[in-house]
Amino acid sequence: MVVNLLLQDAPAASADRSQGSPAAPGALLRALVRFAGWRRVCAMREQLAQLDDRMLRDIGFDPEEARQEAAKPFWSPCTLTRVGLH
User: Which range is least confidently modeled, 1-10, 15-24, 30-39?
Assistant: First the structure.
């Protein structure tokens, strides 16, 4: 994935900044990491919305809470927790 490759190159980018180049690579890296997180949350919520109540209970989620989580916008943090776990 592009983000993983950028993270591996991050030390080289910081070395370039010490030589007077702009700080844009760090800002770009942060933006890409945030974008990747948003995409992950979007995919998770889309998959969650496709599960029926029985499936949600089977994997330990309250169906109503799962529907509320699936309806949230992509930038909202995930707050869904499994039920019945001790």
Answer: 1-10
What tens digit of pLDDT does each residue of 46-74 get?
999 999 999 999 999 999 999 999 999 98
49, 60 contact by CB (below 8 A) = no
- The whole domain housing 42 covers 2-70
Question: Would you say the C-alpha torsion 12, 3, 73, 71 has a positive or negative sign?
Answer: negative
d(CA 19, CA 49): 49
Contact 35, 6 (CB under 8 A): no
Domain-embedded: residue 61: yes
78 within some domain: no
Rounded distance, CA 50 to CA 32, Å? Answer: 27
